[in-house]
Every structure is written in C-alpha cells, then in structure tokens.
Specification:
By secondary structure, the chain is of the alpha/beta class. It has 2 domains: 35 residues, no CATH class; 201 residues, 3-Layer(aba) Sandwich (Rossmann fold). The protein contains 10 helices and 7 strands. The chain has a 5-stranded parallel β-sheet, sandwiched between helices. The chain has a two-stranded parallel ribbon with strand order 1-2. Strand 3, helix 3 and strand 4 form a beta-alpha-beta unit. Helix 3 runs parallel beside helix 8. Its EC number is 2.4.1.21. This is starch synthase.
C-alpha cells in the first residue's frame, strides 16, 4: 500500500469498509477511490434485440414488457394471468442469500404473484424440491437454462436481489436496463461482517430523498430496502402492493429506472481521471 498512488474499488461503501476492517489500510484511505461498475449497453438492448416480441425504450416500456411477460409465461408454462411476476437470476450461493430467496418465493406466491428462478450450482436441487410442495401451482418455475437470462429480465416486473453482500452487483443494473424494478434489502448495520453495497446503485424510491437530491443529474431510482432479516418481506410486499394498488405509478417507476445511465461512460472517465492523477502525483514526486 505504501507504494501505491491510487487504488480503485467497485463501490463507494466498499472503500470505507476496507479501511475499517484493516488497520493497515486505514492510513492509506485517501488512496482508495470508489468507482461503480458499468454495463455494456450493446448487450441486452431491449430496443435493438431482434428476438423479443416488441422492441421498446422507456417511452413504450409498458407495451414492450407486457408482450415480453406474456411470451415468458407461455414459454415456461406459467398461467398467462395478470399477476406480478418476480424474477430471480443468481448463482445459488450463501453470498446471494439462499435462505432469503427461499423465503421470498413463499412470500411472492402467498401474495398472489408468480416467480421465475434462474439459478446455478448444486443448490438448484434443493430449490427444485420446493416444486414438490407446489405440485398444483402453475405460478412457480425453476430453471437452469442460462441462455434465457434475457427473457427473464425482459418478462419480469421486478427482479429480486437479496444478496447477503455484494461488492457492487450487476444484476440490478441489468434489470434497470430492461425496465424491471430491482427489489433489494438494506442492511443498516454498516459494521456488520457482510454488508450489501447495492445501495450505491439502488435507492429507496420512498425514503432515500437525500440520495435522489444528490443525484439530480443522474437520479438513481428504485425500490426497496430494509435493515433487518425480514427486509425481504418489507421490500417485496411494498413492490407487490405497488403493482396491485397503483399500477400507473409502478409503470412510471419502470420508465424511470430504465432512463438511468449505467453504461461504462462515466466509470471509464473516472478510471482515466484516477490514472492521470496518479501520473501527475508521480511526476511531482520525481521533480
């Protein structure tokens, strides 16, 4: 660390976290810079994708996602009903919150929603056991076909990301690209061993007014966070209730999240600025 001029981290919060957990790093905190990841906008573009039912932008997101949702329901054998569709796309590991995902499946179905889970790892067998408990249910699908990940993003009304911890997270960024509302939980105990950094990119649409104001030029919207284990219930209930009780508001949220810029444009400039700052510092030291 003594020889390093600058070092990037993929999260603003991760930068602070590293200094607290390691006293060796703390004196060098000024060298750490949080730069949030971006996504490749040429991949998974709902406007230029030739394989989706209706190409869409934020201006016709309701029409586009409705067609994609019906196509996904038909492809997976779900009942083609006007129900909130919760998508979960993840590696099934402890980090991703396996127990929270299981709980969320029960909660979403209990609220009259549909659930599609695209998961990977040996844990998938444990999740498929859940299907035996819903033998007569046509509102739950568990799949492992990676090639249909875009279909899940397109067709889901909301994407659940209940991770125990995330350095940055890309699922929520991709979800917003497709106009799907990310549903996450928030851990307010910043001293905890595992802290989700999703709130670098996902702000609570109801409560995080300060963050919204700070991001006036690039407002980062979305639902939904809470500080306790039952935060998944809290967030998911709010999202599903919004879908049922105020559909026009929910659709406006889909439009708003889709209009956010999560490309590599800004992060790339931040990395260049960091590089040039390091070069400048080195030149000054040499002189």
């Amino acid at each position: 660390m003594k020889m390093v001029n600058n070092t990037p981290r993929v999260s603003y919060i991760l930068k602070k976290r590293r200094s607290r957990e390691n006293p060796v790093i703390a004196p060098h905190l000024y060298k750490f810079h949080g730069i949030v990841n971006g996504i490749d906008l040429t991949y998974g573009d709902p406007y230029n994708d030739k394989f989706i039912p209706v190409s869409y932008t934020s201006e016709n997101v309701v029409e586009g996602k409705r067609a994609a949702k019906e196509a996904l329901q038909q492809r997976l054998g779900l009942s083609r009903s006007d129900l909130p569709l919760v998508g979960i796309i993840t590696r099934l590991t402890h980090q991703k919150g396996i127990h929270l995902i299981k709980h969320a499946i029960w909660r979403a179905l209990d609220r009259g929603g549909q659930v599609v889970l695209l998961g990977f790892s040996s844990w998938i067998h444990a999740f498929k056991m859940i299907l035996t408990q819903f033998s007569s249910c046509s509102d739950l699908v568990i799949n492992t076909i990676y090639s249909i990940i875009a279909d899940f993003m397109l067709g889901a009304d909301m994407i659940l990301v209940p991770s125990i911890f995330e350095p940055c997270g890309l699922t929520q960024l991709t979800a917003m690209r497709y106009g799907s509302v990310p549903v996450v939980r928030k851990n307010w105990k910043v001293w905890a061993t595992f802290l989700s950094r999703l709130h670098d990119t996902v702000f609570d649409v109801d409560h995080d007014k300060k963050e919204h104001k700070q991001q006036a030029l690039n407002q980062r919207d979305s639902i939904l966070k809470e500080q306790i284990h039952l935060g998944v219930d809290y967030a998911l209930n709010r999202a599903i209730s919004a879908w049922y009780n105020d559909r026009s508001w929910f659709h406006s949220l889909c439009k708003r999240v889709m209009e956010q810029d999560w490309s590599w444009n800004r992060p790339a400039l931040d990395y260049l600025e960091l590089y040039h700052a390091a070069r400048k510092m080195k030149n000054q030291m040499n002189n």
